[in-house]
Amino acid sequence: MPTPFFLGTASWIFPDWQGVFYPDGLADRDRLAWYATQCNSVEVNTSFYGLPAPSTLVQWVESVPPGFTFSLKAPRLITHERRLVDCRQETLAFLDVLRSLGAAAAPGFLQFPPSFTRAREGRILAHYLDWLAAELDGLSLAVEVRSADLLTPAFARFLAERGMALVVVERTGTDDFFAAWAESGTPYLFLRLIGNDGEPLPNDRELQRPQDEILDHWAGRIAALLAEGKPVYCYTHNPFEGHSPASVRRLRQRVHARYPLPVWSPEMVVRENEDSASTGQLALF
Question: How far apart are CA 97 and CA 60, in angstroms?
């Protein structure tokens, strides 16, 4: 069986995608179900603002086929507001949400702001991650840091030793720290292709700044990892090329040319008597 390659976008809710990714006339409630016929995973940013209610999680899982996964970002209360201080209860609630997804859970991830540094908050971070490691109980969790003094092989190893992964980010102006991740021995890659988010594009409807060289580079890395038996979770963002579904297709084609991937073309899941907004990423409560 081929090594799993989970590839998707950051959210499935973008108005500009109607008519160019989502078919004209598709109801809002059916967007996730349609999305899941095209991609086998999605990054969920809604959880950054508030954890989804159990009923919402059930609706999400029932809208996708077997094999589809959700990667949830930890609430900003934990990482940005309290900055790991007095937030153990909130962290446990986040872990409970990941567990409730069951087989549909991709690795969750903690994302820290650039101002969160080893120099200022390293001790707090180390104590928190030591505690968190003991609470995972089989869950997969990745950590995204943006401070230069944390983007190091030593920190990547620190995470790997505790059963966590360093998130690898492709962002304009950010150093390539794939090597730091690779040296850590982490059993899977969690990759976010963000691009130049500092220069917004006029819309999210079409390919506007192709990144062929970068896609070729990452396709080679991903194919090599899959050949080694290391799963890959990869999420494309609209600023990367202008329309993240196109980036998904372009990257998948490149990986497939190097490492044959199984076909992903499931039937669309149809649910009866749904609330029209119940499957949207903004349906928190």
Answer: 12
